[in-house]
Design brief:
Largest sheet: 9 strands, mixed
Number of strands: 36
Strand content: 25-35%
Helix content: 10-25%
Radius of gyration: 41 Å
């Protein structure tokens, strides 16, 4: 047993008072002699003993009453073993209030956010006015960093609203620990009031502070269903006006009910392109393919709509993509331009083709190109090598064919710097291409598919022949994809990823004395697909709150014109942070976008990109940990000083008081004091003379 006010124990000296009163009130008996007193001797003896017993009982009752009153004012309690032993001094209490979208759900007492506010208010009410309090929400606002008095805290609490931000439990505790690191004194307590979603409850990543007590306060919602678009992707990355494409959509059902005939609508530039309905099982994902035909070139604003209730904030999914009007192809040659490449790309208005000799290249034009062709260059200067590497790393595509001469040392040095296979000694054995990697996206839509949707080449298919080639081998980067293989097993055409870009290497020059590939039927679709796949594709969408950089090629407009992000309906505009490195530009929004939708990136009057932002889908997964699962995770990951508050018959404020103070005994001692006072009164009346 411990005492809140141990100084009151000095009042035990008051026990002397009833003793003194008892001694002063003792009666002195005198002897009165009269006749026949011997008949009264027994009565006199009995009366004296009864009077002494009465006085002793009254004395005991008075002393016990004073004893209980002194203990009551010293506030004894049986300390709680659930928290660290309390130190002397005030308490520093940090309260995390989950205000994510999932807290907009309904519980038995109304909206979860309102219930969480009520719990936070009851927590601070259970502490003394001398204690200090600090508020943490999903927004991690700077104004919440300091510790406040009870009244100031309650004022901040009333301002809390639903937020789009979603943070993991470990991030919250890390932030609270950082705040507590500035508090050297006081008793540290952290309260976490949340619905404890499974998607954000990363107990395995929590690193608690041994000096802090953590109290988890779950608020439970009524079981609800939620259906949402989880992710999207296109079957083919190539977009051209008039082309038929398919948009793949993954939809998740986080509820416990099977949902049937749910409509799904696709609109592009506010024009409905496709509509379908689907059925999904509880707790499962469903993939749906939506076919439609591309329209005009330019930035496309897409949106998917589903019908779902009562969680509706995630019923729309925004995305954007670009349909380029033309593709830019740059050819860099050695002594003379390759006539086959020039004829191929200049005959189609879809391509803008330019050619430079290797010693006359304008490096400033690289940021405008989609595909760079290196043909017959036997000496790659260090400047050209560096610019090509930057071009690849930012997402461009480069195709290299070796020179006719044996001077391949410079080319090999460049390939080696990229971690790519290098060219060996020339092989003059006549061979044919024996196999194609028809599953690779380079050959997509090149061959017809059978009824089962597979490509099966006939046994006698006509493939290019090779008279001479340079065997490719080695490489320190990731394993390259062999797109075309010769009869002897050597690669004829390979591809590998370099940074965000793609490098293609052919083992033979595009000359008649080496191969007929440049005159073969495969040449046109293979080179066209290289160009199509070389488009630098930005993300279809970004997640609000993730601060993911937006990668774009550096634009040629003067930087005096401020770069701005503007909502598509011009209702909102801000200036983002821009970091430029070489020919790449990274744009950071730093949490300035709070609403899902389309946004345009401008520099001056020029539109650089259209962007789509969606709410974090972690909040759409409404599955939450129950009390037993939370306790199980605490034990599983050995999280010391963690405690879960469960519902009980006591009011919530009383639970907090009992948690901090243990089991208080002062009320029992007040009751005992009253009992002893009543006993004194009864003794006086019952044992009256």
């Amino acid at each position: 047993m411990e005492f809140l006010n141990p100084f009151f124990l000095f009042a035990f000296g008051a026990l002397v008072i009833p003793v003194m009163i008892h001694l002063f009130n003792l009666r002195r008996y005198r002897k009165e002699y009269f006749t026949n007193v011997r008949f009264l001797a027994n009565i006199q003896l009995e009366t004296r003993k009864r009077s002494r017993l009465k006085q002793l009982l009254i004395l005991s009752a008075r002393m016990l009453a004073i004893f209980c009153l002194v203990l009551a004012f010293s506030q004894p309690f049986i300390p709680s073993h659930q928290l660290n032993k309390r130190k002397s001094g005030y308490r520093a209490v940090s309260i995390y209030l989950d205000n994510s979208y999932s807290m907009d759900a309904t519980g038995t007492e109304g909206k979860l956010l309102d219930l969480a506010k009520k719990r936070a208010s009851e927590i601070v009410s259970a502490y003394k006015s001398s204690d200090i309090f600090q508020l943490v929400t999903n927004d991690f606002e700077g104004k919440h960093l300091p510790f406040f008095s009870r009244e100031e805290f309650l004022g901040l609490l009333r301002e809390i609203k639903i937020s789009h931000n979603s943070v993991n439990l470990s991030e919250v505790i890390r932030r609270q620990n950082d705040i507590f690191s500035r508090q050297n004194e006081g008793n540290r307590l952290q309260y976490l009031v949340s619905d404890f979603q499974k998607s954000t409850g990363d107990f395995q990543n929590i690193r608690p502070d041994s000096m802090t007590n953590y109290i988890l306060v779950p608020v439970v919602s009524i079981k609800q269903n939620n259906l949402f678009v989880d992710s999207i992707w296109f079957t083919t990355p190539v977009h051209r006006p008039g082309q038929a494409v398919r948009l793949n959509v993954r939809i998740r059902n986080c509820g416990s009910d099977k949902l049937e005939k749910i409509p799904l609508r696709l609109t592009i530039n506010n024009i409905q392109k496709s509509v379908t309905s689907f059925t999904t099982d509880p707790g499962r994902s469903t993939e749906i393919s939506l076919p439609f035909t591309e329209d005009k070139s330019g930035f496309q604003l897409g949106r998917l709509d589903i019908t779902d209730y009562p969680v509706v904030y995630d019923d729309m999914f925004y995305f954007t993509y670009d349909i380029s009007g033309t593709l830019n192809v740059l050819s860099i040659y050695g002594y003379s331009a390759n006539p086959y490449l020039q004829s191929l790309f200049t005959s189609d208005s879809l391509f803008t083709y330019i050619a430079f000799q290797a010693n006359q290249v304008e490096y400033s034009s690289f940021n405008k190109q989609n595909l760079i062709l290196i043909s017959g260059v036997d000496e790659i200067a260090s400047g050209l090598a560096g610019e090509l590497k930057i071009f690849l790393e930012r997402g461009g595509s480069v195709c290299i064919t070796p020179p006719e001469t044996h001077s391949i040392q410079s080319l090999n040095a460049f390939l080696s710097s990229l971690g790519a296979p290098t060219l060996g000694n020339q092989d003059t054995v006549n061979q044919r291409v024996s196999s194609l990697d028809i599953e690779n996206e380079l050959f997509s839509d090149v061959f017809d598919k059978n009824s089962s949707g597979k490509i099966i080449l006939p046994d006698n298919v006509d493939l290019p022949f090779v008279l001479k080639h340079y065997p490719l081998s080695g490489g320190t980067a990731n394993t390259p994809s062999v797109l075309m293989r010769l009869q002897n097993g050597n690669p004829f055409l390979i591809s590998l990823n370099v940074g965000k870009g793609r490098l293609y290497v052919c083992s033979s020059p595009l000359e008649r004395s080496f191969t007929n590939f440049q005159q073969h039927l495969l040449f046109v679709p293979v080179m066209y697909r290289m160009a199509f796949l070389s488009e630098i594709r930005s993300s279809l969408y970004y997640v609000i709150g993730s601060n993911e950089p937006i990668d774009l090629p550096s634009d040629s407009i003067s930087e005096k014109n401020m770069l701005k992000i503007r909502e598509w309906n011009n209702s909102f505009e801000f200036i983002p942070e821009v970091r430029t490195s070489g020919q790449q530009m990274q744009v950071y929004v730093h949490g300035q976008i709070n609403e899902a939708g389309w946004y345009n990136l401008h520099r001056g009057s020029k539109l650089l990109a259209s962007l789509a932002f969606n709410y974090d889908r972690k909040e759409s997964d409404i599955n939450c940990f129950n009390y037993k699962e939370i306790e199980s995770n605490i034990k599983k990951y050995n999280l010391r000083n963690f405690l879960v508050l469960k519902p009980s018959g006591l009011p919530f404020t009383r639970q907090i008081e009992r948690l901090n103070m243990g089991f208080p005994l002062w009320k029992w001692f007040i009751i005992l004091a009253i009992v002893f006072i009543a006993a004194e009164i009864l003794i006086i009346r019952i044992l009256r003379k």
